[in-house]
Amino acid sequence: MPCLLITISLIHSHIWLILVQMLFHILLVRCGLFDWYI
After folding, report:
1. φ/ψ (deg, to 5) at 14
2. What is the DSSP-derived secondary structure letter of residue 38?
3. What are phi and psi of 11, to 5 degrees?
4. How many whole angstroms separate alpha carbon 29 and alpha carbon 37?
5. What radius of gyration, in Å, describes the C-alpha atoms of the chain?
6. Where are its TM segments located (predicted)?
7. pLDDT of residue 34
8. Cα separation of 31 and 38, whole Å?
9. What is the secondary structure of 2-34 as a DSSP string?
10. How far is CA 37 from CA 2, 22, 27, in A?
11. Helix (H) or strand (E) segment spanning residue 36
12. Contact assessment for residue 18 and residue 26, using Cβ atoms and an 8 Å cutoff
């Protein structure tokens, strides 16, 4: 049971990490800083 909880928490943190990266990417594009970011 603890292993299952740890796995779920890891998956959730991974999903949040992807969401944050996506939001950051969208903000960069909207601000016109995408060219500088690359």
Report:
1. -65, -40
2. -
3. -65, -40
4. 9
5. 15
6. 15-37
7. 58
8. 14
9. HHHHHHHHHHHHHHHHHHHHHHHHHHHHHHT-H
10. 41, 14, 11
11. helix 34-37
12. no
Contact indicator for 15, 23 with CB cutoff of 8 Å: no
Task: Check: CB of residue 37 under 8 Å from CB of residue 28.
Answer: yes
Token readout for 27 is 């903000």
Residue with tokens 């959730």: 12
Q: Mind listing the pLDDT tens digit of every residue in the chain (38 residues)?
A: 688 888 888 888 888 899 999 998 888 788 776 566 55
| Token code pair at residue 13 | 């943190």
User: Which pLDDT score is estimated for 21?
Assistant: 92
Report the sign of the C-alpha dihedral through residues 16, 24, 22, 35, in that order: negative
